[in-house]
Write a structure and sequence with these properties.
Elements (H helix, E strand, L loop, with lengths): L1 H17 L2 H8 L8 E10 L2 H15 L8 E8 L3 E2 L10 E3 L2 H6 L1 H4 L9 H11 L10 E8 L10 E10 L2 E7 L2 H6 L16 H11 L11 E9 L5 E10 L5 E2 L1 E9 L2 E4 L3 E4 L2 H8 L6 H10 L2 E2 L9 H15 L6 E13 L5 E9 L2 E4 L4
Parallel strand pairs: 1-2, 4-5, 7-8, 13-15, 14-15
Antiparallel strand pairs: 2-11, 3-9, 5-6, 6-7, 8-9, 9-10, 11-12, 15-16, 16-17
Helix pairs in contact: 9-10
Keywords: Signal
Protein name: DUF1735 domain-containing protein
Length: 374
Amino acid sequence: MKKNIMYLAAFISLVFAACNPLKDEINNIKPVAENRTLTIASTTLYATADAANTGIAAMLNTNYPHLTNGYKANVTYSFKTNTIKPADSVFANIQYTVTTNDYTDAAAAVGNGTFKTYSVAQAAAFLEWKYPQAITPAYKLVLLTYQFFQSNATPSAGVTVTDAFLLLPNGWQKIYLVLPAQYAALGRGINNGFTSADVANLPAYFNTLLKSDPSIVAPKVGDVRYVTYKYMQSGTIMHQKVYALSYDITGNWVPSLTLAFLKKDSKWIPDPTIYYTLVRADYNTIGGSTAGTAAGRGNLAQFGSFDVTGGANNWTEAQIADGLIVILNVKYPNAPVDPGVSYKVTYALFRGATPTGTKSFIKTATGFVIAPEN
């Protein structure tokens, strides 16, 4: 009997050892990824982005010296003034109308072929052709008049439009232009411009315009919009000014911006990430390289986007990365070896609802490679 009890006890122990649900749960526990990004709202006002970079970095070094290298911080702050100073703001100096010859001369860079029309992206590519970022002052502002074409929305000959473009650190970008009808709605339709009497009300004016504009769909917290407007310094002197607003958690466009910082070499510094968005000529460059497949390269050069639909022209993620590295080597041939500097590249996709993609790279001793995930 005693022997039977011992056998039974041994059997029960074996069962629990072989099927211990608590042990299974413990084994299945995965370490939680550490959040290495701070989100901070600064109460200090800054006159310029440069002043904000200096002041916020000092604040982070004082308040967060214990955080290790690799930590990031996104800090939102308000400007003392939200006016972004263009390289030239005199109204008469910043206007340009695309000529018939321009459509032909810039066609290779813009990708409009023989058509005398542009999409918004092509208009931005034209400005990069005419005013290359490498040799053009930052924050150059252009009011560009051109023939705009959009499939199923405009006649084949396009419609004449005037759009505002600003040269930002990541290239030429279309920004928000206050139109005559909007000046009129705000009681400024006689001169189609604002004066010194309007300065205090500009944030409220622009918040109303942006919130009521049907073209601004589903903005996200932290999104930034640059609004350009005519400012009458006197009866004869007019400037085209630029005002920056961010979308906040209350659903309003407010006068604040967010800067990114990085803990590197035991100090907080402005995030050195370099942002670049492919222009039309870049797709032609990749099309002439060895990245991807011959069919994919031909399609890319023809349409200016990476086909990721799975067909004969498909690009895999690795092939897209190879193509982007081709451009990084062309645009940044002398980039130093520094794994702490990320190159964030945005590119066009042919994939229905997701028109763009973004990949980050770093420069190593062997060249550009995909940046490791944090």
